[in-house]
Design a protein that fits this description.
Blueprint (H helix, E strand, L loop, with lengths): L11 H6 L6 E9 L5 H8 L8 E3 L18 E3 L3 E8 L2 E7 L10 H5 L4 E6 L8 H9 L4 E6 L9 H8 L7 E4 L4 H21 L9
Parallel strand pairs: 1-5, 1-6, 6-7, 7-8
Antiparallel strand pairs: 2-3, 4-5
Helix pairs in contact: 2-6
């Protein structure tokens, strides 16, 4: 027989004895070339003030941080961006923005560990800049999508045209987005999660082994 406040009737005593389970966490990477909009996407969709590791572009750094096509860019990420989205009490998404410059690629393996998938941000003015990210996730069999950031003044291309230019397989979605728009960024993340779940449930070969 259950009594008020007993463990059986779900009263306060039961809630104290059995605290709520820890939420499930999902890790998503935001990758892409220099100036493609990674930091902007994380900032737009994060529910918390995002952690940024940006520094001003320096004159010596201009030798490697080429700004052709993104001349208005004045900062660069030197470690990572971090944001959080609480979907519900038991599900939280963590966003990790990877640095785009070659000299920081050594960090990618650590950032990618345990990730559900990745968004590769693409700028059609510098499309070749996202090749390293595409190659990395293809080589590691990490589910990913390509999100073409539609910059003001940049020529618009059909997603199929971008797919052909990047030589992507049909199972890699290509979507258009505005990294400044929270709703647009949300749609990008939904597309990634749906694609990742489809790949992971359909083929065990996509599961990244623990190390």
């Amino acid at each position: 027989m259950a009594y008020a406040g007993s463990y059986r009737d779900g009263g306060p005593a039961a809630r104290d004895a059995y605290p709520a389970a820890m939420p499930v966490t999902v890790k998503i990477l935001i990758a892409g070339g220099f100036g493609a909009g990674k930091t902007t996407l994380v900032s737009s969709v994060s529910e918390i003030r995002p952690l940024r590791t940006e520094e001003s572009l320096s004159e010596p750094g201009a030798v490697v941080d080429l700004t052709d096509g993104v001349e208005r860019k004045t900062t660069t990420t030197v470690a990572m961006d971090f944001g959080r989205i609480t979907v519900r009490d038991d599900l939280v998404i963590y966003l990790f923005g990877t640095p785009g410059q070659k000299r920081f690629w050594f960090m990618w393996d650590e950032l990618a560990l345990g990730a559900l998938g990745a968004v590769v941000m693409a700028d059609t003015r510098r499309l070749a800049d996202c090749f390293p990210s595409v190659d990395y996730f293809e080589r590691n069999r990490t589910p990913f999508i390509v999100a073409v950031n539609c910059f003001d003044g940049a020529q618009r291309y059909h997603p199929d045209t971008v797919r052909t230019a990047l030589d992507l397989t049909d199972d890699v979605p290509v979507v258009l987005c505005d990294a400044r728009s929270r709703a647009s960024c949300r749609d990008v993340l939904v597309a990634l999660v749906e694609n990742a779940l489809q790949l992971l449930t359909g083929s065990a070969s996509y599961v990244t082994p623990a190390r």
